[in-house]
Write a structure and sequence with these properties.
Arc Repressor Mutant, subunit A, homodimer, Four Helix Bundle (Hemerythrin (Met), subunit A), two-stranded antiparallel sheet, DNA-binding
DNA sequence: CTGGCCTATTGGCTAGGCCACTGATCCATC
DNA sequence: GATGGATCAGTGGCCTAGCCAATAGGCCAG
């Protein structure tokens, strides 16, 4: 059994420190000498930690200049592959439809009582959020996360996490449309009902309709430069 | 522009050396002191290179023992997340069903003439392969890759690539069953017909049936320790 | 044969130092 | 006044030397 190496701890301390201080891309880390003494490690060890962070793509170390943050933290190759393209929204809809429809069906089959409690809680949170005039972005995310958890598939869950940042962006755009949060909430209710009734087909259909509704926004927005991809 | 760091060169030399000598998982690298002097760098620098290789997952450094190769090179986090579990086959079926069903539907909508040519070619390759008594694993893979390409979605394609190694394993098991390659080929034909006819629903249904057929094997194999996950 | 100890080997980490690169400043030149 | 080169302080890159800690295998006592 290999124990945690010091450089790993240091790397984590650094990332934590970055988060705490709200540092963003382009910001600089303290000089190695200072940072090393502040963390109570040698410069060599700190250097190892920086190598690790550099390999992961979190920072870039520039000789003679300093260590600057990339902000990319550690994005999956999936996300990287799609970020370059400007017309990514349709693709996000496609993959959400593929994954979440299946997830909804599995959730209907496998959900436990606890899963239902979590889903209901997310539903309540979104309702309350909307009552307060919010868009309910976080609650929306919470709901989908709860459904994903109820599907009890690590692989599907991990894949959803990989593209979470992409989905979040589209989610914000969608929920910014007037009347959309209420609409979305109704969609969530239908999905929840089907999951509660343990009806996979209905859950899949409800989720599909929900994702489709979101896609309308995307199409509206992409209308101008829509290409051969007829949907 | 930041020039190449020494540790990067060292890491590359090491990986090259591994390839040249045909080292495999479980093999040991020379001791740090020896390796460092042989590469003409200090132990500190070599240590940085090893950290980089460790972060990438190519090696694991064990205190007091040595540095051993993992052979995993660089697998996606999705794959890593699932490798730990022994009962991964059901989950692979789930995600294949989710992704490939959607991919088939999209392929039916978006396929070009060239896409069809590629799909037909894969079909022919599989047929010929089976005639020769092979299992047609490569041709099977080729077919699914061609369909994925025809869906014209970078995101879905990249996601499929991420879990490709997992699918490949299940594929080999499936096609090893007697009579299975022929069965699989028929499934491919049905999928191809639907895609050629540009019928999304039929393509999705055909792909779903195809994946289900594969899942039968998996269930058969997992029968003994099947848990609450009723399917 | 078993169990515990010893030791050679190997990686973990530190300390201290010199070198190379970067960027800003200052100054001579035009 | 504008331009271009020299300078210098700060920063990372890399090295040497050394001690500490974990591992594995052999040795010895029981």
């Amino acid at each position: 059994m290999t124990r945690t190496r010091l450089y790993e701890q240091v790397a984590e301390q650094i990332t934590a420190w970055i988060q705490q201080n709200g540092l963003e891309a382009g910001d600089r880390l303290p000089p190695e000498r200072e940072l090393a003494s502040r963390l109570g490690v040698s410069r060599a060890t700190l250097s190892q930690a920086l190598v690790a962070l550099e390999v992961v793509g979190a920072v870039v170390v520039r000789h003679g200049d300093g260590t600057v943050l990339t902000g990319k933290h550690s994005e999956s190759r999936i996300v990287e592959a799609i970020r370059a393209h400007s017309d990514r929204l349709p693709e996000i809809i496609d993959i959400r439809d593929a994954l979440e429809t299946k997830i909804a069906a599995l959730a209907a089959q496998r959900r436990t009582k606890d899963d239902l409690v979590a889903i209901d809680a997310a539903l309540d949170a979104m309702e309350e959020s909307i009552e307060h005039g919010d868009r309910g972005v976080d609650a929306d995310e919470q709901f989908h996360a709860a459904v994903t958890a109820a599907a009890h598939s690590d692989l599907l869950a991990q894949t959803m996490r990989e593209i979470a940042s992409l989905i979040r962006e589209s989610r914000i755009e969608s929920l910014s449309q007037p009347g959309r949060p209420r609409n979305s909430l109704n969609g969530h209710r239908a999905i929840t009902d089907a999951i509660r009734a343990q009806d996979p087909e209905a859950a899949a259909a409800a989720m599909h309709a929900h994702v489709e509704m979101v896609s309308d926004v995307a199409l509206l927005r992409d209308q101008g430069r829509d290409q051969a991809q007829d949907r």
